[in-house]
Amino acid sequence: MSRFSESIPVRVYYEDTDHGGVVYYANYLKFMERGRTEFLRAIGLELDAIETEFGILFAVTEAHVRYQTPARFNDLLEVDTSLIEMRGARLAFTQTIYHQATRRQLCTATIRLACINRESAACRIPAPLIKILQNHLNKEHI
C-alpha cells in the first residue's frame, strides 16, 4: 500500500505568537486540527456531513506532541497528516509540521480520537466510513 498523507500550508500570524514572536505551543494543535480536517476533506469526508448523516463526531482523547524548533511570526509552515490507526471507535493520526522553505521539522505529534455520538458516548466508526478510511490507512507506521 502506498503512503497517503495530506499536506496543507499554514501561515503564522501575529495572533499565533507570544510576546517574543514565537508560536505559542498550544497553537500547533490548532494547525494540526486544520490538517486533520483537510485530510478528511481530501478523501471525500466532510465533518459536518458525517455528523448529519451518521450522528457522530470525533473527539481528541490524546495528543502526544514533541516540539523541536520554534516557528516564528510570518513563517510559512506545512502540516503533514497521515492516518495510522483505525480500530472500533478509535482513529490515530501522525502529524508533522515543517518550515516550508527549509523543510526543517518543527514538531511531530500522534493524535488519537474517539468516535462519539451526540450524547458524547463512544461508538463504533460506521462501516461506510471505515471503507473509505481503510483506503487511506498508512500501514507503514503500524
TrEMBL record:
Keywords: Hydrolase. NCBIfam families: thio_ybgC, YbgC/FadM family acyl-CoA thioesterase. InterPro entries: 4-hydroxybenzoyl-CoA_TE (IPR050563), HotDog_dom_sf (IPR029069), Tol-Pal_acyl-CoA_thioesterase (IPR014166), YbgC/YbaW (IPR006684). The keyword Zinc does not apply. Belongs to the 4-hydroxybenzoyl-CoA thioesterase family. It holds the Pfam family 4HBT_2. This is 4-hydroxybenzoyl-CoA thioesterase. GO terms for molecular function: fatty acyl-CoA hydrolase activity. SUPFAM superfamilies: Thioesterase/thiol ester dehydrase-isomerase. Gene3D superfamilies: Hotdog Thioesterase (3.10.129.10).
